[in-house]
């Protein structure tokens, strides 16, 4: 198993754990490295919730589909990011969402039961990992609350601008790149792509923003109507 040490160093799950202990401890956690192609399902809704993933390369989207197959993107995870940990901490029997590779890459899959319960070897890192897991889950809850605030807006325009303003604030700049293409952004905002595209055209025409693919620039904050 060949893993870039920087990935583990940047992964919140390994915070406070010595570098020389990180690779050896993966065996204790039942780790396995998996190559993923774009759109490949890593785990699907209904699968046993016994896996925690770490993105090594590429990115992973967490999606939810309703009865009719309408897709909503809950979040996107890049290198060193965790996914599936919330359901492990909650003791869920099955995943209520699916994890899908957003681009070619690889992930590291860990047995969540070996993280949340101290092993027979009494490894010293377990208490630190459990603490780290709680920190990660708390931060994920904040991110989820942000999305709830965005999609609770009444109109497509309001949802779109709430998201873009949040991105500008997080980037500390009026110019920024988002991690979604047009369809993925519509799925994240839970709106129709055609309606969103129409609003983007209106915002460009009104001189409020410029955009090309996933690159945006806010031009006239004073003219933004929320």
Summarize the structure.
The chain has helices spanning 5-10, 19-28, 85-90, 113-116, 125-151, 156-171, 182-189, 193-205, and strands at residues 32-36, 41-43, 51-57, 60-65, 71-77, 82-83, 98-101, 105-111, 175-177, 209-212, 215-218. With 226 residues, it is an alpha+beta fold. A hairpin with a 5-residue loop joins β4 and β5 (71-77).
Written overview of the protein:
This protein is an alpha+beta fold. It has 8 helices and 11 strands. The chain has helices at 5-10, 19-28, 85-90, 113-116, 125-151, 156-171, 182-189, 193-205; strands at 32-36, 41-43, 51-57, 60-65, 71-77, 82-83, 98-101, 105-111, 175-177, 209-212, 215-218. Helix 5 packs across helix 6 (156-171). It is elongated, with a radius of gyration of 19 Å. The model has no long low-confidence stretch (mean pLDDT 89).
* Sequence of secondary-structure elements: HHEEEEEEHEEHHHEHHEE
**Overall average pLDDT:** 89
Strand content: 15-25%
Broad structural category: alpha+beta
Q: What's the β-strand tally?
A: 11
Distance from first to last alpha carbon: 50 Å
Shape: elongated
Give the low-pLDDT segments: none
The number of helical elements comes to 8
Q: Looking across the biggest beta sheet, what order are the strands in?
A: 1-8-3-6
């Amino acid at each position: 198993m060949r893993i870039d040490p920087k990935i583990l160093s940047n992964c919140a799950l390994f915070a406070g754990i010595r570098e020389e202990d990180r690779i050896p401890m993966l065996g204790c956690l039942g780790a396995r490295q998996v190559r993923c192609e774009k759109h490949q399902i890593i785990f699907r809704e209904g699968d046993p919730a016994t896996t925690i993933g770490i993105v090594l390369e590429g990115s992973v989207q967490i999606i939810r589909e309703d009865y009719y197959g309408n897709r909503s993107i809950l979040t996107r995870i890049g290198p060193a990011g965790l996914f599936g940990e919330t359901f492990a901490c909650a003791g869920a029997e099955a995943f209520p969402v699916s994890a899908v590779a957003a681009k070619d890459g690889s992930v590291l899959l860990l047995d969540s039961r070996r993280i949340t319960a101290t092993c027979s070897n009494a490894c010293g890192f377990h208490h630190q990992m459990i603490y780290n897991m709680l920190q990660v889950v708390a931060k994920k809850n904040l991110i989820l609350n942000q999305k709830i605030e965005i999609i609770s807006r009444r109109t497509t325009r309001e949802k779109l601008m709430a998201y873009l303003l949040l991105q500008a604030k997080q980037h500390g700049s009026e110019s920024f790149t988002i991690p979604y293409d047009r369809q993925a952004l519509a799925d994240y905002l839970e709106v129709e792509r055609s309606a969103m595209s129409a609003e983007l055209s209106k915002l460009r025409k009104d001189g409020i923003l410029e955009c090309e693919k996933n690159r945006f620039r806010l031009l006239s904050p004073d003219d933004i109507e929320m």
